[in-house]
Amino acid sequence: MKITSWNVNSVRARITNIKDYIKQASPDILFLQEIKTQDESFPYDEFKKIGYKSHVFGQKSYNGVAIISKIEIKNVKKDLIKDDLNQSRIISGEILLKKKKINLINIYVPNGNPIDTDKYDYKKKWLKKFITTIKKELHKNSNVLIAGDFNIIPEELDVYDFKRYENDALGKLEIRKKFRELLNLGFKDVYRDKNKNKQEYTFWDYFAGSWQKNYGMRIDHFLLSNNLLDNIISININKDPRSKIKPSDHTPIELKIN
DNA sequence: ATGGCTGAGCTACTCAGA
Question: pTM for this structure?
Fold first, then answer.
């Protein structure tokens, strides 16, 4: 089974790119972030035509997450977190894999910049609530997969120039500590676990030729609870969609499990 | 390089992203 996570930066502006990606990569389940549209404007039919059912937690103009899937997703929830600003940033559901019930959680963590504003406080509070939520979820079911746009650079090698980001909402130590706190609940950062020293990115800015210069960062992640690590086949950052016309600034990350 | 692109909503320009 292939599960992909991709911040698409508007599902409607990106629909052709997304369908092209699906044709090429054929994921069973696709986690989308930043769909930037309300539920009623989501392109359900476009995905239905190619065999995917959509579960959507939309929002006008900003944020918004969705899970689209070829296989049945049960017990879809959009209220795992009571969001202080009522933003649409988390959607979860359950699948069965070899008789194991797995809790799938798709997140879009607040950016948090600039750091001297309430946006940064919102990010810290959101992450704190998220960690509390995950602790509770683990008590109910220890098989947990979390994926999405974390807006966290976990370590220095996860960005082209760490000095530029050590005082940024994506790279500040207190934010990176939240990521470690999550891992300490019993998760692995699957990409880093399988690629100990490799420097690959999932995001490149639109401007200043960041893509061409490979000025990127690794901020989209798959976290898998330790008891599921034996199910991993592979993890891959698929850079192809970032090279296309009218791309998202993020590229998909793909996990294969069995 | 603290915004040099991009998208939404709207239809001139702001807000947001990272």
Answer: 0.97
